[in-house]
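Researcher: Structure for this, please.
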Amino acid sequence: MVTLRCHGCGREAKTDNPPKEFVCKVCGAVNVVPQIAETSSEACGCLPPTGFEWTLPAGMKEGPGGKIYITAQGSEMTKQEYIEAFGIDPDIAKAWMEKMGREGKSGFVKIGGRK
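Model: Predicted structure, token format:
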């Protein structure tokens, strides 16, 4: 049993299968769980990013085994792990980001970038 602690609000939760990252259901902070030996006195450390953009995928690798999504913090996850950690489908989020990169948002001026 591992205890996970949120860096934002200090909330603790116990789990048998710790995720690579998790979003606190109380304060919304993104937490990265370091992969450390179970003999350590601290089960969970974290990075203190804020904002929704930290839950969006930073990239994707595709190979014979399928797609692997890369988080903003650099963790590699399967689609199911990503959905469990952040509650969003990374394919839908990636399509939305690509659309915003092409079209921009109405009312804002798009400077440079792809045409």
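Researcher: Any notable elements?
Model: Strands lie at 2-5, 12-15, 21-23, 30-32, 59-63, 66-70, 76-77. Residues 2-103 form one domain.
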